[in-house]
Specification:
188 residues, alpha/beta, 6 helices, 46% helix, extended, zinc, nucleus, zinc ion binding, RNaseH-like_sf, metal-binding
């Protein structure tokens, strides 16, 4: 008995698509799906190696930014970026990770994920001086643990803090009424 491949068939796997390509150019050989997967994997490995080499050559300290956020599709992610001053005194930023989070976003888990990201790039914990982050209780807890463990300074994002202040102020009835009245002023 023949067992049928259970993967969903994409448009490019369909005989109609293949026939259309043959009509356009009979000599063109349509690459397989695995061909493109292999190309992407090679590009990823080359880029990872290049980023590791760049970080290895940095003489200054590193700082990280970390943010846990949720997409419109309600999928959670951890974003991690690395910042440093180059030899010619330019600030450089490298995005190290945008990883999907399928486990609970506890302080312990966030701490572990941050340590996994720096390990992936061969960054010594002693090279990191600070991490900028939002005010979420889970990431604040993670930073407290990382500060104790590695001595990283925990820096709350001033932009995020300011946004929290503004949002809170807008809930004040007198301010809310004033904003509502201002919205009805003529544009002149």
């Amino acid at each position: 008995m023949l067992v049928k491949d259970m993967r969903p068939m994409s448009m490019v796997d369909g005989e109609g698509f293949r026939e259309m390509i043959r009509q356009f150019n009979p000599e063109y050989i349509l690459p397989s799906r695995t061909h493109f997967t292999h190309l992407m994997e090679k590009k990823y490995e080359a880029t990872l190696l290049k980023v590791k080499e760049t970080i290895k050559e940095v003489k200054s300290a590193l700082t990280l930014t970390a943010d846990v956020w949720t997409s419109r599709a309600t999928e959670a992610y951890l974003g991690v970026s690395c910042h440093f001053i180059s030899d010619d005194w330019e600030m450089k930023t490298l995005n190290l990770a945008t990883m999907p989070l399928e486990e609970r976003h506890s302080g312990v888990n966030i701490m572990t994920w941050l340590e996994e990201v720096i390990a992936k790039y061969d960054i010594l914990p002693t090279k990191i001086k600070a991490v900028v982050h939002d005010n979420g209780s889970n990431i604040v807890a993670a930073m407290r643990m990382l500060e104790e463990k590695h001595g990283w300074a925990s820096v709350r994002c001033s932009g995020h803090t300011l946004q929290l202040i503004v949002n809170n102020a807008l809930k004040e009835p007198s301010i809310s009424r004033a904003v509502g009245a201002a919205r009805h002023l003529p544009d002149q």
